[in-house]
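Quick one:
INPUT:
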């Protein structure tokens, strides 16, 4: 089977434009998502095929547009939408791009220009005969991105899960809507991380207005999966190098420009990028806060939850500006 598929893979990698590869990927993902939603039963009644296909496309492209109430979907259908959002998110698609790029490069040829010997990195005493190629470096980054994706999703889903358990009123809301706690935790975390915006309740995030802790848990997800992803990625690689003292992480940090992964920046560029994002956060939040002071309806009797909600909206607004690769 491997030898039969090899010509097809070579044709796609070397002959097909990246635009058509991306187009085919999202069309295929949306179609498979629609078929999966079609063969599974909704919670009550039936849903129109066009509505299901529209929802599948919206989840795959993380555009958060839906004409169907989220509570109409069954638990299995919510899981399907979770997978679609995850596979259509910025981090996952960039990881697939790394995989495709690695297939275009020769494996470990120390004679090519893309090969960088550790002698040049000052590591000759520890590893005198080790060399890494561009193919190896892209593979290293791919594994780091995969670990980053899995760890962030697992940790934050656990935080959401235990928060809802600790707050009895929050768990009662989910029970009244017939939504499983584990599904809600994973669905909301993935939706926030990919900046899709879907929530398995008809009221969207307004259902958690009284539970400010949930918003504070989700705010880092908005940043780690979108706008500040390059900063978090470089910080994670730097921390891994310090903790493990592995040469692979030094290779990635020292040769980020050679690897060509757009989300991997230099420390200087990451610093200015973080300053810019912080300025946008401050501008958006300040504008809403000061303009809302003139209207009591914005604040209500308890201003603190409203402020947290404004911060969540401000971060989500900034996260909507997807990173250009």
């Amino acid at each position: 089977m491997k030898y039969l598929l090899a010509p097809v893979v070579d044709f796609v990698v070397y002959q097909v434009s990246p635009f058509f590869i991306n187009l085919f990927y999202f069309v295929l993902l949306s179609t498979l998502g629609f078929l999966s939603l079609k063969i599974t039963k909704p919670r009550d009644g039936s849903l129109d095929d066009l509505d299901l296909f529209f929802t599948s496309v919206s989840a795959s492209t993380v555009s958060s547009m839906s004409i169907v109430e989220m509570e109409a979907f069954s638990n299995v259908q919510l899981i399907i939408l979770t997978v679609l959002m995850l596979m259509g998110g910025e981090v996952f698609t960039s990881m697939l791009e790394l995989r495709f790029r690695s297939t275009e490069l020769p494996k470990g040829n120390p004679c090519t220009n893309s090969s960088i010997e550790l002698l040049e990195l000052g590591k000759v005493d520890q590893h005198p005969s080790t060399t890494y190629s561009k193919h190896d470096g892209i593979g290293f980054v791919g594994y780091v991105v995969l670990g980053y994706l899995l760890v962030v999703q697992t940790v934050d889903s656990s935080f959401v899960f235990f928060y809802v358990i600790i707050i009895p009123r929050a768990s009662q809301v989910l029970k009244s809507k017939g939504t499983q706690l584990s599904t809600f935790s994973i669905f909301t975390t993935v939706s926030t991380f990919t900046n899709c915006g879907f929530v398995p309740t008809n009221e969207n995030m307004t259902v958690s207005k009284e539970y400010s802790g949930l918003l504070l848990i989700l705010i880092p997800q908005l940043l780690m999966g979108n706008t500040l992803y390059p900063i978090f990625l470089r910080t994670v690689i730097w921390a891994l190098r310090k903790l493990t003292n592995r040469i692979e992480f030094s290779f990635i940090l020292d040769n980020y420009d050679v690897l060509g992964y757009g989300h991997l920046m230099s420390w200087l560029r990451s610093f200015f990028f973080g300053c810019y994002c912080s300025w946008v956060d401050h501008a958006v939040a300040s504008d809403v806060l000061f303009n809302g002071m003139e209207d009591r309806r914005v604040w209500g009797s308890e201003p603190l939850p409203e402020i947290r909600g404004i911060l969540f909206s401000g971060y989500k607004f900034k996260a909507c500006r997807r990173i250009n690769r």
